[in-house]
């Protein structure tokens, strides 16, 4: 199938997607069968974009296939010329060229003589004539009368010349068909000039015309120019008019689908139902003519290559349709990501409120409101009347739908969002999941890339792996986890932790989401235990401690919390002692070689150390640090945190619009992992000494103030 761009019409019957070939054949036969034509004029009517030029091309092809030497076909491209005089001269030039080529001396100089007579008959409308650079009249400058006087010799009258030409043509056994397409591209005065020329000098024996234009538009032009004549003006010129039959919706839909398949490929089998739902509800209603098909095809042929395979095909085609035919709606969607992505809160009172569509319908014609609402709900489940749980977002993200924030921008920027990995990168991660060195290198590279929000690409990699976790083959899960566990502490960056009010995620949380996604419902508990035991052997300290703590916590009975079902636990209960010993051995090694003090999760590890063993081992280690100023600063920073709070409105107050940051000391007077009194005394001593740098002293002072504030408030 041939590609067409810039609304180009089809050129051959093999390209006919709309079933207009039978109509074209009938039209072609009508010219063949006309007997003794005298300027016989047939009109082909149809609105803009209905495929008139395609029919003209098919008529030409069909007549050419007939190979009738007695029928000469020529085309006059009227829209190449500007101005009535230019059109008149070009029309005569075309007529002269056709007749001289075929009849030679029989019509020598007759058309030029007629041209001279016509130009002398009336005033020159413009002082200059703009012609196409092709043809004998190219580069013409000056008045039309002066040109006509030089080009056409002054001989007999116009009437006598016309009679001679008519007699010469009448004796011929050949007929001439002149096709004039795109008349509705002309200015009103120019279009009327074409009709006049066909009616006057064009009314010749054995000459026929096919005029192609929008009848309603032409009649309005004539009505404005000649109110008394109205449609009778055209009736006097045109002997027969044919209305181009409208393509069947089935054919139009088939043409659009064929174009999508040719440019973008076919939807995946599991997405076919949704694709067709979106197509019939959003795309098909806007495609009512071949021009609409061409316009949509041209649009996606330009925009698709930039984001191929990075978006959901159904959403992409739907949004391109809205961009072309509902630009106001498209722009509102583009500007309101937070209002359309994700899911609504449980029990949201606005879920069934029709007013949820109001902001989107401004600028949309009233007759399209229901169509726009349907489109919005097909694309954005958040706007449906039914509710969806947060787990749906993961499924939508795997399909790269526009309703997911991480993928939304890709549809509107024609480039990948910095929140997203390309499908090729994700496919490579999955296909090489068993390659530990590749996985570690990929995540180390992710650490080095800084996104616009200041975070690294690590959260993006983890989120995409979580979304696509079920695609990782079971035999590749353990080596993938082994590589990730080993580099956890390297990629667990403070800048990747969400901050402020409602902060929820950090790299460790994302690890937990990922491992659950990779193993849940895919491995039985015993099988899963063996996978984790194999993967944690070379685990980094922070992750090993966290994983062990989570595994133990699964079996803890807590008040107001149901016990975790055994099948949902990370590992079997019998495996806990082995995992705990691995964690303790790693902690002790880090304590001995000095890396524990430098660990960014030091405080968390100290509490877990106490939890896994007993208090004495932890206290012995922290007691040894109290005499070293540098170690005290490290401990201070490890025990310093921040919290965020917002004042709520009430009792007439307006409340806060932003969250407030508060420095907190993660210690109390009865903290058991360190001697709190000795720790405070040691800090007071180093603050008053010259052992610390300015920033170190400031951090210690802030910590002591927070500790004192909490002690006084009993917090």
Automatic annotation (TrEMBL):
Pfam families xrefs: KAP_NTPase
Span of the signal peptide: none
Top-level taxonomic group: Bacteria
Domain KAP NTPase span(s) in chain numbering: 21-303
Organism annotation: Vreelandella titanicae
Gene3D superfamilies per the UniProt record, alphabetical: P-loop containing nucleotide triphosphate hydrolases (3.40.50.300)
Protein name (record): AAA family ATPase
């Amino acid at each position: 199938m041939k590609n067409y761009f810039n609304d180009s019409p089809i050129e051959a019957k093999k390209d006919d997607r709309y079933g207009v070939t039978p109509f074209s054949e009938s039209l072609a036969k009508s010219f063949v069968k006309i007997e003794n034509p005298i300027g016989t004029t047939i009109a082909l009517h149809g609105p803009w974009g209905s495929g008139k030029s395609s029919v003209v091309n098919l008529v030409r092809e069909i007549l050419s296939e007939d190979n009738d030497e007695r029928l000469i076909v020529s085309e006059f491209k009227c829209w190449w010329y500007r101005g009535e005089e230019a059109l008149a001269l070009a029309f005569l030039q075309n007529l002269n060229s056709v007749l001289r080529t075929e009849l030679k001396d029989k019509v020598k100089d007759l058309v030029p003589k007629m041209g001279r007579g016509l130009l002398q008959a009336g005033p020159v409308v413009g002082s200059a004539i703009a012609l196409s650079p092709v043809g004998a009249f190219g580069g013409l400058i000056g008045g039309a009368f002066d040109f006509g006087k030089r080009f056409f010799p002054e001989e007999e009258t116009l009437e006598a010349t016309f009679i001679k030409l008519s007699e010469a043509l009448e004796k011929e056994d050949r007929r001439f068909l002149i096709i004039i397409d795109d008349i509705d591209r002309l200015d009103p005065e120019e279009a009327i000039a074409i009709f006049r020329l066909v009616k006057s000098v064009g009314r010749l024996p054995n000459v026929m015309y096919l005029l192609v234009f929008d009848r309603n538009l032409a009649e309005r032009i004539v009505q404005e120019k000649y109110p008394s004549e109205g449609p009778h003006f055209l009736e006097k010129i045109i002997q027969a008019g044919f209305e181009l039959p409208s393509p069947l919706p089935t054919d139009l839909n088939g043409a659009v689908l064929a174009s999508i398949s040719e440019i973008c490929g076919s939807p995946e089998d599991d997405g076919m139902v949704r694709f067709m739902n979106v197509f019939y509800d959003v795309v098909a209603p806007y495609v009512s003519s071949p021009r609409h098909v061409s316009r949509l095809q041209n649009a996606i042929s330009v925009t698709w290559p930039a984001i191929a395979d990075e978006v959901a095909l159904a959403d992409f085609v739907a949004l391109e349709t809205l961009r072309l035919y509902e630009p106001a709606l498209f722009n509102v969607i583009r500007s309101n990501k937070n209002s359309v992505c994700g899911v609504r809160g449980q029990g949201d009172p606005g879920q069934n409120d029709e007013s949820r569509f109001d902001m989107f319908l401004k600028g949309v014609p009233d007759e399209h409101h229901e169509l726009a609402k349907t489109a919005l709900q097909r694309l954005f489940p958040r706007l449906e009347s039914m509710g969806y749980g947060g787990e749906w977002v993961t499924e939508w993200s795997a399909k790269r739908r526009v309703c997911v924030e991480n993928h939304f921008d890709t549809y509107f920027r024609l480039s990948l969002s910095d929140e997203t990995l390309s499908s090729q990168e994700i496919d490579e991660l999955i296909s090489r999941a068993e390659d530990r060195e590749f996985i570690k290198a990929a995540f180390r590279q992710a650490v080095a890339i800084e996104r616009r929000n200041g975070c690294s690409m690590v959260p993006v990699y983890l989120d995409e792996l979580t979304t696509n976790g079920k695609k990782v083959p079971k035999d590749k899960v353990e080596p993938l986890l082994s590589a990730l566990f080993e580099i956890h502490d390297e990629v667990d960056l403070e800048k990747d932790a969400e901050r402020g009010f409602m902060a929820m995620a950090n790299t460790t949380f994302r690890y937990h989401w990922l491992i659950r996604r990779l193993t849940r419902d895919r491995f039985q508990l015993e099988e899963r235990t063996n996978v984790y035991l194999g993967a944690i052997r070379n685990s980094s300290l922070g992750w090993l401690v966290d994983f062990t703590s989570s595994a133990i916590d699964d079996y803890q009975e807590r008040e107001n919390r149901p016990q975790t079902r055994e099948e949902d636990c990370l590992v079997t209960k019998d495996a806990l002692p082995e995992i705990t010993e691995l964690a303790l051995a790693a902690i002790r090694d880090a304590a001995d070689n000095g890396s524990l003090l430098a660990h960014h999760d030091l405080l968390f590890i100290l509490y877990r150390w106490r939890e896994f063993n007993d208090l004495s081992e932890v206290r012995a280690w922290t007691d040894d640090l109290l005499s070293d100023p540098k170690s005290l600063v490290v401990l201070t920073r490890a025990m310093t945190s921040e919290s965020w709070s917002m004042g709520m409105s009430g009792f007439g107050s307006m409340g806060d619009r932003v969250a407030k940051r508060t420095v907190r000391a993660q210690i109390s007077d009865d903290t058991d992992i360190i001697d709190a009194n000795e720790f405070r005394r040691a800090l007071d001593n180093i603050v008053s000494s010259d052992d610390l740098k300015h920033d170190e002293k400031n951090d210690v002072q802030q910590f002591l103030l927070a500790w004192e504030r909490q002690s006084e408030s009993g917090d």
